[in-house]
């Protein structure tokens, strides 16, 4: 039994296997086709990932010295052709593929779905810049749709706290990976739009593989983001991760921290902004006052105030000119009126009635003479007539009769001729006219 | 004025302040109005500053349950899972 079975140390076995594998001329330089998954670009520069196909997977490492010359950035889900050798990581006893060259090999199925959905939504105009809603400058509340336990929510809250502590935050917890993730994200976005308590929404999660981020590449999520009335900032994964949600969101943030920075301005910046407003207020008011002052100065310097006499001279001259014009007008007016007067006077003199009076007097005189002549003629004729009448009358005169012995008997008052004995009573006084005189008599008796 | 300040959000106050600043800068206002605008602007600026100074913090977790919406104060769990 002294020559019993040899006991190997694990290290020896791993080293032996390593030597065996490395001496195999097939495994020392091979090409593999597969899809990258669980990709980690370590801070050392080395890349660690898994290559997989439909049924199997293989751990891979690509050292910094090799991957520096890579013509593309390897990503989760990418189909690649990789060249390298199989060897063993002695410490872990793992065999792995040491990649020294790699190139993209078509696109993986998830990638294909991604591209197809992207093209479809782009054709619908869902990514159009004019659809993007502006992120409010000073949100009154921020909504966060993400996992309540991840690094993302913590990064967002810390960043918000750091920048603008007084902004309220409303977190709606959702699943961010797995089959239930998309419906839960859609529900949350719709809930926020119903409540309308926040005016900006951060939707996202921390980094992960393409599969882990997949919910953010689903159509339902993309559409609910597009339909959101509240502006959406997408914050999915890392710098290099692009999802459909990023394209359709109103603003894409590289990381959750960046999303929080985009959602609210830093309070220091806001204070500076307020300070600038105050400065502008001061300057504007000062400008206004200066402007008024300058205008006042200009007015004070204006010729009106400097030489007020100059402004009186012109009106004075005008007054003088007007006065002169008035005078000359008055003189001309007077002259015209005098002319009119003398003209009228001449006409008046021409029409004087003196001549007519003389003529009329002559005519009157002539008429009077003729009248006198006529009258004298008439008078002489009448006188002759009268004389002959008197002569014939004298022959008929009662006096002539009386001279022949007849008398006239009057009542006492000599008014009434007594023609009947009945006119006189006995004792009455009567007068008797005779041709040569009168007798007063009294009736002694009467017969009749 | 004093009463509306109570409901004026930071955003509204900032917008009002900006509006007043540009109106005053436009210069097309009577001097009395300019002074009023200046005073109003300074007041709003102080209001905005005081709103920034508010340290009161409100983080709520909104959960839909069968009873309806539930609001809880939220303190994120300190675990780094990269989710």
What does this protein look like?
The complex is a heterodimer of chains A (448) and B (83). With 448 residues, chain A is of the alpha/beta class. Among the domains of chain A are: 97 residues, Nucleic acid-binding proteins (OB fold (Dihydrolipoamide Acetyltransferase, E2P), Beta Barrel); 146 residues, Rossmann fold, CATH 3.40.50.10550; 41 residues, no CATH class. In chain A, 48% of the residues lie in helices and 19% in strands. Chain A has 13 helices and 13 strands. The mean pLDDT of chain A is 88. With 83 residues, chain B is α+β, with helices and mostly antiparallel strands. Chain B is built from three helices and two strands. In chain B, strands 1-2 form a two-stranded antiparallel sheet. In chain B, helix 2 runs antiparallel to helix 3. In chain B, 19% of the residues are buried. Chains A and B meet through helix 4, strand 7, helix 5 and helix 9 of A and helix 2, helix 3 and strand 1 of B.
Structural category of chain A: alpha/beta
The average pLDDT score of chain A comes to 88
The CATH topology of the domain at 120-265 in chain A is Rossmann fold
Q: Any idea what the radius of gyration of chain B is? A: 21 Å
Strand coverage percent of chain A: 15-25%
Number of helices of chain A: 13
The CATH architecture category of the domain at 120-265 in chain A equals 3-Layer(aba) Sandwich
Instruction: Provide the β-strand percentage band of chain B.
Output: 15-25%
Approximate helicity band of chain A: 40-55%
Proportion of helical residues of chain B: 55-70%
Low-confidence spans of chain B: pLDDT under 50, at least 5 residues?
A: 79-83
Silhouette of chain B: elongated
Rg result of chain A: 78 Å
Widest beta sheet: strand line-up of chain B: 1-2
Strand line-up across the major sheet of chain A: 1-2-3-5-4
Largest sheet geometry of chain A:
5 strands, mixed, barrel
Cα end-to-end separation of chain B: 48 Å
Low-confidence parts of chain A lasting 5 or more residues at pLDDT below 50?
none
């Amino acid at each position: 039994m002294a020559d019993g079975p040899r006991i190997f140390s694990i290290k020896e076995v791993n080293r032996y296997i390593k030597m065996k594998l490395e001496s195999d001329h097939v495994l020392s330089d091979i090409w593999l086709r597969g899809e990258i998954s669980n990709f980690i670009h370590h801070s050392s520069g080395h890349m660690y990932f898994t290559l997989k196909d439909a049924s199997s997977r293989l751990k891979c490492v690509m050292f910094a010295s090799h991957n520096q010359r890579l013509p593309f950035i390897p990503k989760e889900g990418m189909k690649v052709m990789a060249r390298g050798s199989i060897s063993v990581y002695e410490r872990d006893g793992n065999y792995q593929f040491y990649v020294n060259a790699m190139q993209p090999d078509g696109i993986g199925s998830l990638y294909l779905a991604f591209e197809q959905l992207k093209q479809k939504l782009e054709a619908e105009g869902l990514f159009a810049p004019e659809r993007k809603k502006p992120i409010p400058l000073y949100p009154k509340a921020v909504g966060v749709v993400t996992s309540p336990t991840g690094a993302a929510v913590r990064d967002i809250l810390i960043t918000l706290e750091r920048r603008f502590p007084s902004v309220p935050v409303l977190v709606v917890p959702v699943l961010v990976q797995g089959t239930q993730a998309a419906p839960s994200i859609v529900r949350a976005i719709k809930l926020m739009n119903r409540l309308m308590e926040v005016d900006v929404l951060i939707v996202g999660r921390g980094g992960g593989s393409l599969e882990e981020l997949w919910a953010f590449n689903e159509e339902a999520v993309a559409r609910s983001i597009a339909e959101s009335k509240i502006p959406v900032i997408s914050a999915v994964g890392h710098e290099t991760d692009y999802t459909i949600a990023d394209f359709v969101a109103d603003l894409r943030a590289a990381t959750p921290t960046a999303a929080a920075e985009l959602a609210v301005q830093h309070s220091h910046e806001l204070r500076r902004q307020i300070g600038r407003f105050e400065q502008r207020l001061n300057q504007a008011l000062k400008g206004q006052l200066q402007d008024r002052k300058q205008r006042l100065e200009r007015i004070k310097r204006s010729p009106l105030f400097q030489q007020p006499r100059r402004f009186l001279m012109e009106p004075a001259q005008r007054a003088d000119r007007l006065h002169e014009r008035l005078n000359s007008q008055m003189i001309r007016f007077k002259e015209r009126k005098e002319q009119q007067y003398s003209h009228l006077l001449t006409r008046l003199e021409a029409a004087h009635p003196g001549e007519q009076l003389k003529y009329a007097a002559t005519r009157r005189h002539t008429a009077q003479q003729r009248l006198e002549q006529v009258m004298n003629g008439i008078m002489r004729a009448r006188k002759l007539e009268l004389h002959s009448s008197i002569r014939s009358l004298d022959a008929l005169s009662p006096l002539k009769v009386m001279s022949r012995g007849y008398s006239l008997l009057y009542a006492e008052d000599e008014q009434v001729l007594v023609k009947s004995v009945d006119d006189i009573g006995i004792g009455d006084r009567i007068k008797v006219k005779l041709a040569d005189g009168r007798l007063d008599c009294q009736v002694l008796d009467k017969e009749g | 004025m004093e009463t509306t300040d109570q409901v004026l959000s930071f955003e509204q106050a900032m917008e009002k302040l900006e509006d007043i600043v540009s109106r005053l800068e436009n210069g097309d206002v009577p001097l009395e109005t300019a002074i009023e605008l200046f005073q109003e602007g300074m007041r709003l600026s102080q209001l905005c500053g005081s709103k920034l100074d508010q340290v009161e913090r409100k983080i709520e977790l909104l959960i839909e349950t069968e009873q309806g919406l539930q609001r809880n104060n939220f303190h994120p769990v300190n675990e780094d899972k990269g989710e």
